[in-house]
Amino acid sequence: MPFAYYARLSRSQQAVYRKSDAIVEIRLEDPAALHASVAALDAALRTEERVATERASRELVAGLADAMGLPAVRVEVLAARPHSRWGELHGLYTHERGRPPKIQLWMRTAKQKRVVAFRTYLRTLLHEVGHHVDYTGLRLGESYHTQGFYKRESSLFHQLVPDAEGRITMPTMEEYAKLPVEERLKRLTRTADELAAAIRGRDDAALSRRPDGKNWAAKEAVCHLRDIEEMFMGRFG
Question: Which of 116, 147, 159, 225 is a Cys-bridge partner for 31, taking CB atoms 3.0 to 4.6 Å apart?
Fold first, then answer.
């Protein structure tokens, strides 16, 4: 379902919108190679120094551009965000004919002048990189905020920020469906042991409790998987 502004676009613009919306991920060949740059950016933000944050931001953006085969883009980090009736500006990408593209990022909130949280700052950086991808990589002509655009941004984030155990965070259904069959089958071989470890020693009442009205309890999810396994084996076993 396109966003509401889609109806106000011309036919040619709608075609660009649909193309953008259909591309849901950007898969990096070696995301681990950029993890050191991500950690350096986190450390730079903690210093609360603009120059250090700008240097780390430039390094990460340069690494991403190189990994995706994109032209270089200038990066400028500024202090407090601009603020107006429409809200705060977190980042800005400019792509003008005859000038090199530029990403501007603001590292402090407009009112409190506090340093932005690392994950928020990184998502803003990746958002602006996403516009660079649209113009110079995907050659879309326009860079619209489509659902596909936000999914591409998230796909980059989840490859760059491992979870607490050092693993890349869980892919979306769209991302998982595009994995090679061999990789998906390898993942399935671990499912039983991981589920057993997750529920072992847990109170039955906790396993039977639904988190909300739209999602199953843990016990229901496991039982459903067991039902699917029995049905599958009945047909193909």
Answer: 159
Q: Which of 144, 126, 124, 125 is nearest to 134 (CA)?
A: 144
Instruction: Sort residue 69 into left (φ over 0), alpha (ψ -120 to 50) or beta.
Output: left
Please check whether residue 107 is in contact with residue 101, taking contact to mean a CB–CB distance below 8 angstroms. no
Neighbour tally for 82: CB within 10 Å = 13
Per-residue model confidence as pLDDT tens for the chain (237 residues): 789 999 999 999 999 999 999 999 999 999 999 999 999 999 999 999 999 999 999 999 999 999 999 999 999 999 876 665 545 678 999 988 888 999 999 998 877 788 989 999 999 999 999 999 999 999 999 999 999 999 999 999 999 997 644 555 545 556 667 777 887 787 677 777 767 766 777 777 777 877 655 567 777 777 777 777 777 777 776
Give 93's strand partners.
103
- Of 130, 131, 83, 128, residue with least CA distance to 109: 83
113-121 long-range Cβ contacts below 8 angstroms, 24+ apart: 113/79, 113/80, 115/45, 115/48, 116/45, 116/90, 118/41, 118/42, 118/45, 118/46, 119/161, 120/90, 121/41, 121/45
DSSP state of 178: T
Strands 74-80 and 91-94: unpaired
Helix 35-47 × helix 50-67 angle, to 10°: 160
Q: How far apart are CA 112 and CA 129, in angstroms?
A: 26
pTM over 0.85: no
